[in-house]
Automatic annotation (TrEMBL):
Superkingdom: Eukaryota
Residue intervals of the DUF7708 domain: 79-217
InterPro entries, per database record: DUF7708, NPHP3-like_N, P-loop_NTPase
Domain Nephrocystin 3-like N-terminal: 288-461
Originating species: Periconia digitata
Keyword Repeat included in the entry's annotation: yes
Pfam assignment, any one: NPHP3_N
Name used for this protein in its record: NACHT domain-containing protein
Keywords (A to Z) from UniProt: Repeat
Amino acid sequence: MMAQHTVVRGHNNNLWARAAVALSDNNKRNINFNRADKLNILAKLHVAAEKSRQKSVESRWRYTRKNGDIVIMRDVFGKIVRWIEMFKQVGDVAVQYDPAHAALPWAGIRFLLQMAVNDTNKHASIVEGLTRIAELICRSAVTESLYLHGTSKAAAELERAMVQLYANILVYLSRGKQYLEQVGAKRTIQSTFLADTELTSKLSEIQIAESDINRCMALVDWNDSIDNHSKLAELLDRIDQPLRRMDSDLRNIRDDLEVSKRRKILKWLSSEPYTRHHKQTKQDVLTGTGQWLLSDPVFRRWKDDSASSILWLHGIPGSGKSKLISIVIEDTLTRCKAGECPPPVFFYCSRNPAEPARSDPDAILASLARQLSCLGPGKQLMKPTIDLFEEKEEEGVDSGALYMDESLPLVLQLVEQYPLTTIVIDAMDECSPKKRHEMLKSLKKILQSSTSLVKIFISSRDDQDIVWRLQHYPNLEIDSRRNGDDISRFVKDQVEQLVQDGTLLHYSTCKPEMRKLIIEKVIEGTAGMYVYNNMPHWL
């Protein structure tokens, strides 16, 4: 870690310049401090990042992290473009902020980006690190504009912390430049490993410095700033929103099919009423419940990360897994309607003899293929689906359900049409025990084979075979610590309804006291489970 430096408060200080002064001579040599194009550097970087994003789409670039995660580079470059555009908005909104102050780190990002994209397979991790740096530059610009206006001790401490963060960022850029400029012949396996380890260490130091800033921000009185800079406050909120992952070309797909032919193809793929199952599940969800999941750091990391990944939600029977699944689906549908991402594809499994397809992996995967075949009801169909149907039609077998070995290749083709595919499957434990391992293998195949971003969200009980296959993926276990508030709200709502319709406390002369006592006792007995239609039996 670099030594801590005391800073003096002052208005419109260039904190990046202060950070540069704190660098060692070796790090200073790797950074150009006398650039004449400070005002143009951001525009040039924007062009370079956009070109890299387009190239990554065409080349279907991806790389594998040390932990096995597969990172989709089009998403990484898309984030860099986003942070550049966001930073421009900061300059437009915050009159007192001089964007030229941050020209130094932006120039460093541009230099490293230009060198790294020449060999993305070797340097993809550096590009991913630049994405984090770009976000911090943007976020810090908003923080400076909102918080650094007073002369309080807390504001001075925040300024000191920001200078430290900026210094750590400049060191990362300096070390990255030094590494990339090494002559290829001299770069041994050992030196590459050491450089990668050092850069990872520098990112960790940056994260520590960011945590220090967050601590200082909590101590600064910023209410006046928020009142005076509402647009900046809105911008700060937008920074925390997920990346827009939508391709305009998706909305321009044309299949030249009659409506009847389109319906025939979709019905051939699957006739499972997946939307009806979703409506049935979400209708009992109380407004405001399940928000702990959407705000959970593990869930947010799964949703925002540029790596294709599985997130597993597990818990005891009755803990509300299906309701939470419906909340995740609704959250994604809301973002889809706002044009931020494609619609999710989903399936609610159920071991119900009256609906055997809901536990059949063949039917489940076929339903996912149907949903991926178009953007929604009445929309044009994707070419891979039409091609497969016509192939089957020529063979004279255009009817009958597809098996998994037929649906899987189609799904693999379809996910490549999207910048993001979100697959949500509820109650995997309800899937046929004899065949669900094949379903999980298929999902893993989709994850590992796709060159587009894939997010898979699965819920289940802790059945042994499922635990064995999913235990190494990120997971969230539902317990009373997480769903306790939701269950309390549910019990209060149910008791209130029973009281209002006369089923409960109809003849009581002290309803408020009895209502409170009943709610307390029922909550004590739930043990992290919802009681739903069995509520009267608890009373």
